[in-house]
Specification:
526 residues, 20% strand, elongated, 5-stranded mixed sheet, Helix Hairpins, alpha/beta, Rossmann fold
């Protein structure tokens, strides 16, 4: 009925029928009371009643004919916990020692029977229930705080482990770079040695850039900004190109590569570059964790529902069964020993899963603890459309050559002197007329003297930004531009595009990418 307090179930556990009736009558008379009573007269069977009826409060006699109320209370606490059932202990005689004993045993209150009245008993019952409820809440909050503290400690430990791994991974490629530079500086190397050292420098700088790209991809994933450009794509072609990027490492470890491309339907709707990144990550892991002389099997097969499963299987160290459920989590690499022995940041598989999810596909990991090795299977839906584009690795040669490079004036705006010199030299080598500027003011003065066919500008400049520069140059005459930046998020790219740049390239800039962007811009509409 509206206006009444909720019904509370009370268990009166007393071997004296008159005392039970008195408690029931007093509580029924109490203002604002709304109780349902359950009665019992002995210790025997009382626990079964408590567990089946789940009373909100228990009125417990201190002396029962077949047992002691304190002993029953202790059993109750051991079964249900210290705050599971509020208890008000009733006794025929007042005794301070008994009161202390009762409260220590877990009772919420202690009353002498001959001093009872309706108001006193009602307040004792309500206070006992309120106190037990409050204590339960406090205990729950304490447990939650402990759990939060443990999770924070674990998160801090993972953060420290990640930062240590990040420091190691970023420093590692720099070691051979600095060593090679030092060697060329102090030795009279022949051309072949010099080419080998330059190859070492290039390979490790590209590794450094890939690590940074992985970190950027992770931020895109966490913000839900990971985008894919789907088109009909030959999955077998993607697998071959992914292997090409790992071929040197495969040969170095003398791994046997086995192809089992049995799928007759192999065209999928995919972003070619992103899906190639998935298989590159899987192959990179297979190569890393497979000992020299091992084997990697790349297979495909069709499944009902016009699906294709592409699998990368190795004979490596395998995956610990306790870890396999977390293998696609970012920064996870299993034990710290794995990280120390094999290196890496634990990002590749997390990125691979996010990319496969973006393609509405699935990726699964399996490992046999008895035979070792790991297998990663990517499942995608096939399409009957013909592949729109043949995926290929970037070519370093010229594409769509522009006639008369010598007549094309390019403005390179970069305040980092070494970067400006090296990029300027590379671009000049292609026959372009390159003008160097280190600031907006210098760039504007050069453009006022010499019309530029294109500006290649760093976004961060000492006297402003590259976007401000392009706006100033367009006030002099229409100017096309390519942006360079150490920042490469979607927001950065969008900002550059809105400012009028045709392309936004992230540092370190790979020359084939800049060359392609430059020629597309110069061959495109003015």
């Amino acid at each position: 009925m509206d206006g009444l307090p909720p019904i509370r179930k009370l268990l009166i556990l007393d071997d004296n029928g008159i005392d039970r009736e008195t408690c029931r009558r007093y509580l029924t008379k109490a203002p604002g009371s709304n109780y349902e009573f359950v009665e019992h007269n002995s210790v025997e069977g009382a626990m079964d009643i408590v567990l089946s009826e789940r009373p909100d409060c228990i009125l417990l006699d201190y002396h029962l004919h077949d047992g002691n109320g304190v002993e029953f209370l202790q059993e109750l606490v051991s079964v249900g916990g210290p705050r599971s059932f509020p208890v008000v202990m009733l006794t025929g005689t007042g005794n301070e020692a008994i009161a202390v004993q009762v409260m220590k045993a877990g009772a919420q209150d202690y009353l002498v029977k001959d001093r009872l009245n309706p108001d006193l008993l009602h307040r004792a019952v309500e206070n006992a229930m309120y106190k037990a409820h409050t204590e339960r809440l406090l205990e729950q909050q304490r447990r939650e705080m402990e759990q939060l503290f443990l999770e924070t400690q674990e998160a801090n430990a993972r953060k420290d482990q990640f930062l240590a791994a990040l420091s190691h991974e970023l420093r590692t490629p720099l070691t051979p770079v600095l060593a090679a530079v030092t060697a060329t500086d102090v030795e009279n190397s022949d051309p072949e040695q010099l080419r080998n050292m330059l190859a070492v420098i290039r390979r490790n700088v590209e590794l450094e850039a890939r690590l940074i790209d992985d970190l950027l991809d992770l931020t895109r994933i966490s913000r839900g900004k990971l985008e894919v450009d789907l088109r009909p794509t030959d999955l077998h072609s993607l697998l071959h190109h992914a292997v090409e990027t790992c071929q040197e490492d495969i040969a170095h470890k003398q791994l046997t590569l086995v192809w089992q491309l049995d799928a007759s339907l192999c065209t999928v709707q995919a972003d070619p570059a992103r899906m190639q990144q998935v298989f590159w990550n899987l192959l990179k892991n297979a190569v890393k964790f497979t000992p020299a002389g091992g084997r990697i099997v790349i297979s495909t097969r069709n499944e009902p529902g016009e699906r294709i499963i592409a699998e990368v299987k190795d004979t490596g160290v395998g995956i610990d069964p306790s870890f396999i459920g977390r293998i696609f989590d970012a920064f996870e690499q299993g034990s710290p020993e794995i990280t120390r022995h094999f290196g890496g940041l634990g990002l590749g598989l997390a990125i691979a899963k996010a990319l496969v999810d973006a393609h509405s596909g699935t990726i699964q990991a399996e490992s046999d603890p008895t035979t070792g090795g790991a297998a990663f299977a990517v499942t995608l839906r096939c399409t009957k459309q013909a592949p729109a584009v043949s995926v290929s690795t970037p070519a370093s040669g010229p594409a769509n050559d522009v006639d008369g490079h010598a007549s094309i004036h390019l403005l390179l705006v970069e305040d980092h002197i070494d970067t400006a010199k090296v990029l300027g030299r590379i671009i000049s080598r292609e026959g372009y007329q390159v003008h160097l500027a280190g600031s907006i003011g210098e760039a504007v003065r050069l453009c006022e003297k010499q019309p530029m066919d294109c500006v290649i500008s760093d976004i961060g400049l000492p006297d402003g930004s590259g976007t401000e520069l392009l706006a100033k140059l367009n006030q002099i005459r229409p100017t096309r531009g390519i942006a360079l930046s150490g920042y490469g998020t979607e927001r950065d790219v969008e900002r550059s595009r809105k400012a009028g740049f045709s392309e936004h390239l992230t540092k370190p800039v790979h020359w084939p990418k800049l060359e392609r962007a430059l020629k597309e811009l110069l061959n495109g509409p003015k």
